[in-house]
Amino acid sequence: MMDLSGKVALVTGAGRGIGRAIALKLAERGAIIAVNDVGDAAPANVVVDEVVAKGSRAASFMADVSAAGEVNKLVEAVVSTFGKLHILVNNAGITRDGLVLRMSDADWDGVLNINLRGAFLCTRAVLKYMLKERWGRIVNISSVVGMVGNAGQANYASAKAGLLGLTKSIAKEVASRGITVNAIAPGFIDTEMTRMLRENIRQEVLKEIPVGRFGLPEDVAQAVAFLVSEEAGYITGQVLKVDGGMVMV
Ligand code: NAP
To answer: Which of 106, 177, 166 has the alpha carbon at shortest distance from 141?
Structure first.
């Protein structure tokens, strides 16, 4: 059930947090993992070792997902290393929070470039290989914030909302070719991204989560593992919230 043996998966921003958990979960199901991250290669290489310890294959590929040239080289390197590419998880993301009145151009552009443009660039680069296979799975990691908005996160919410439009449009473009494109909208997941928030804010958020706990990276990874499976082949253009019931719309 939900076996990914022989499938090659590229996970962006997989050096830590949710991306790392996705890489490890797909490896558990038998997938070969291309671990992308930016900057210091050490965390990505640790994830490669963790995948190998689970009995699968992996390699790290450093690239900034917001730079077109780097993304094209990244995808070519993955295909020349593993021969094929079947699964893309657009997970790399950043926040640069601030009220819009005081938001700098750099904080707007930086968040849009990595969260939204990065997903577009990676998707464009992988599609020709998926089309050749007549099989592909793309999962975009959005956020519930992209659906309901959040004061102080106009840049991030816009990028995550944009990802939903990207997901649905590409899903329509490639549905007849055996390629599905879906989004996951996590709620509040306990990672370095959310650990930088003040404790009083974390406690306020916790009150809004019916399940009564913050999400774990593994909660998101389980949902990704389902959406990239053979069994999920009739699901495309959808948004799956993984948020402990925080947003019910
Ligand atoms: P995280 O712990 O901050 O990890 C983000 C990863 O992305 C890091 O490994 C980071 O690398 C990498 N990255 C950043 N910029 C990149 C770039 N330009 N190219 C390639 N990789 C890049 O965040 P997380 O909480 O795991 O979040 C993962 C995804 O889930 C993000 O898209 C985030 O928006 C989304 N999400 C998170 C939550 C949450 O509550 N945590 C909720 C909803 C959605 P470095 O370590 O080198 O910076």
So the answer is: 166
